[in-house]
Amino acid sequence: MAFIQGIRLNFQGFLLGLRTPRLLMLGLLRFAVILLIFAAAAAFFFAYQGDIIQFIWSKPASAWLVWLWYLVAWLISLMLLGVATVIGYFMAQVLFSVVIMDAMSRITEKVVTGKEVPPPAMSFFNHLFFLVRQEMPRAILPILLALALMVLGWLTPLGPAMTILSPAIAALFLAWDYTDLVPARRMLAFNARFQLFRRHLLFHLGFGLPFLVPLLNLLLLSFAPVGATLFHIHMAPPDGPPPSA
Fold first, then answer.
1. Domain limits, the chain
2. Is the overall model pTM greater than 0.90, yes or no?
């Protein structure tokens, strides 16, 4: 079943990363980069938290409204912390981690198959620009979708359904952020890459769900490019048509 295969390849990639010195080094570097930018985003949030809340709504003098102000301030703080985390993840992916992710994917391909299908010949800076350009839609699309679901949950009676749907959507797009590395490196059109993602929704759901487990997700995300590359090697080989989910 594609869902179980997704979970299995996630952990199989993690174990392969631990056993391969170059992958282990890059995985730890990626872990450090993500952790550092997350910490910087959170520090920025806490430094300006009070000013932002006061700008949105000054603390009322009436004792009857103070309890409501504290409730709203807590909700605003929670929302701003979430935004800071998303921005931190976005910056980590686009500005730093995408280069590490691509290197981990290429090493995995060589370790498992004995050869690497290199990207088209280009200079380092052109390659870097290409990687960042490919990462942008993968990072922006889930953010926009998450914000849309959050607004739907607030403004409509669909809140309970959004509670279940939102984690599933997050898992799908987190998984796609990694499984899209190989097709993007081979310069497939965005529409073709999205169709590949759509045909393997169950696999991506299984691959992405472990990323939602606190603490464990920090380790699995650091080595996720390995398992995502195994997906293309074992389930969607580039020399043949991808299997249907």
1. 2-234
2. no
